[in-house]
Amino acid sequence: MRIWFKILLMKTLHILIVVMLLSGSAFAETIHLKNGRTVTGKILEKTDKNVKIESNGTAMTYYADEIQDIDGRAFAPTAVPVPPKPAQPVASLGGEVKGNKKELILKFIDVFGTREAMTQNLAAMLKSLPADNPEAQKIKDNINVDEIIERLIPVYDKQFSEEDLKSFIAFYSSPQGRKLVNGIPVIMRDSVEVSTQYFQEKFPETKQEINKE
Q1: What is the Cα–Cα distance from 5 to 211, expressed in whole angstroms?
Q2: How many angstroms separate the CA atoms of 157 and 153, rounded?
Q3: How many domains does the chain have?
């Protein structure tokens, strides 16, 4: 693999982690119903029987027999999810977090949209790589969102108390909190674009070298 592609891949992974931690729901999703209707919004919960989606501030539940597809992906209610491999606790950050504190951390991660953003951004990153690239398949086979989240729990535990987490959950569940969460990905995306353009203007030779490759 050429050195510039390795650098690009590592930078992409770094940006992925930053976006995962700072952004809420990265993109809205569209449910296509069998009756011809479409519903666009943030998916709050997805099981093998139904999907709960928030659209225009209202949470609605649609069942498997009503759903045609979600963003063009067939809804497979009979699919059996494969449980993720248990992640090793991060000893340097205080070991495994258990009990009510862990539940609050996981709830905050979900209400903030971190899990969904991680999943969607990872999928977007893999989609941007050539399908026959062995590195893309290696990333797909080895990166597990649930494992990353498990390793992040001690980070949240170290920084926030239970009362902090309860306050965060209450805020990010409110209309104002949801607006902030939904706006962050747009700000991040536009900021990356503006910053990239700035550096290309300052160092045009870098872009030229990449184009030569």
Answers
A1: 12
A2: 6
A3: 1
| DSSP classification of residue 1 | -
Report yes or no: 21 and 114 within 8 Å, Cβ to Cβ: yes
Q: Which residues contact 181 (CB under 8 A, 6 or more apart)?
A: 23, 24, 25, 112, 113, 172
β strands within 23-181, DSSP E: 29-33, 38-46, 50-55, 58-63, 67-70, 73-74
Pick from 49, 73, 76, 80: nearest CA to 62: 49
pLDDT tens for the 213 residues of the chain, in order:
455 445 555 555 555 555 555 444 444 678 888 888 888 887 888 887 888 888 777 788 888 888 988 877 777 654 444 445 454 444 444 456 778 899 999 999 888 888 888 887 777 777 777 767 777 777 778 888 888 888 889 989 988 899 999 998 998 888 888 888 788 777 877 887 888 788 888 877 655 554 555
**What 8-state DSSP symbol labels residue 91?**
G
Q: Which two tokens stand for residue 208?
A: 């030229």
Rounded to two decimals, the pTM is: 0.50
Domain of 161, in residue numbers? 3-212
